[in-house]
Specification:
Elements: H1 6-15, H2 19-23, H3 29-50, H4 54-78, E1 89-96, E2 103-112, H5 116-123, H6 126-129, E3 136-141, E4 151-158, E5 161-173, E6 177-184, E7 194-203, E8 212-222, H7 230-251
Antiparallel strand pairs: 1-2, 2-8, 3-4, 4-5, 5-6, 6-7, 7-8
Helix pairs in contact: 1-4, 3-4
Length: about 250
């Protein structure tokens, strides 16, 4: 039986709070159903006592949207990779270099309680590691082993909408890091063309302390949309990177 997508659960609960949790076979659907029923009853009662229709109607819509989004996010997190596992990530930081004109440059820094050699074994497994991502659904290498020049197919799933992007491993430094491109199927000059740079380095600690490593993921690209302002694009990419850092904390 095929596992349900986290975005399927997200959309179900966005429509009916608790439905995604039920589809994920989680008991947490019960409190969501109860809260939904209680909120509907309370707002209906309030509207009747207020004796007006427009203002209570606006409150109901706003409260309903908030409840649906909270339930949808919770349902999605139930099906995320690494859910319920202990994390080796000690700290995370997302920083933005800003970039000039239409460029975007954002870095995710993580301190991981693992040796660099051990962490590298996880990072070099591209089909697994690159799907610890808000939108990467599946990653396919065009060769058996990763190396510079190997092409990639990057399947994306954003809010239930699936589409393919394509890339290539630009550099591969064994035990140290790599970089790869992520380009639109429409060409390299549209759809936010960008490059991921992944780097690992040991963190010096006293001899008796656990081995620590620093993992840095840098996203550099160009905001190509003429309809959406660059500052909104940078804000969106930053929010995506914040979500990415949260997933890495759970998935490593």
């Amino acid at each position: 039986m095929t596992a349900m997508s986290k975005w399927t659960a997200f959309m179900l609960s966005a429509c009916v709070p608790g439905a995604g949790q039920l589809a994920a076979r989680s008991w947490t659907c019960l409190p969501w159903f109860a809260v939904t029923a209680g909120l509907v009853a309370a707002l209906t009662h309030f509207g009747q006592r207020a004796g007006t229709e427009d203002w209570p109607s606006t409150v109901q819509i706003a409260a309903g949207i908030v409840l649906c989004l909270l339930s949808a996010e919770h349902a999605k997190r139930l099906l995320e990779q690494g859910h319920g596992q202990s994390s080796h990530v000690v700290s995370t930081k997302v920083s933005c270099a800003g970039g000039q004109r239409r460029s975007v440059d954002i870095a995710i820094d993580l301190i991981v309680k693992q040796s660099a050699d051990r962490l590298w074994q996880q990072i070099r497994d591209l089909p697994r590691f690159l799907t610890i991502d808000p939108f990467h659904d599946k990653v396919i290498l065009m060769r058996d082993s990763p190396a510079a020049g190997v092409d990639l197919t990057l399947s994306h799933n954003a809010f239930g909408w699936r589409f393919l992007r394509f890339g290539r491993i630009l550099a591969w430094r064994e035990n140290s890091g790599y970089s790869f491109s992520d380009l639109s199927a429409r060409g390299p000059h549209t759809g936010f063309p960008h490059v991921f740079e992944v780097q690992i380095e040991p963190v010096l600690e006293p001899q008796d302390s656990p081995s620590m490593s620093r993992l840095t993921i840098r996203v550099r690209g160009r905001w190509t949309s003429r309809l959406v302002p660059v500052w909104i694009g940078r804000l969106w990419i930053r929010l995506v990177c914040l979500e990415h850092s949260r997933l890495l904390r759970k998935g490593l």
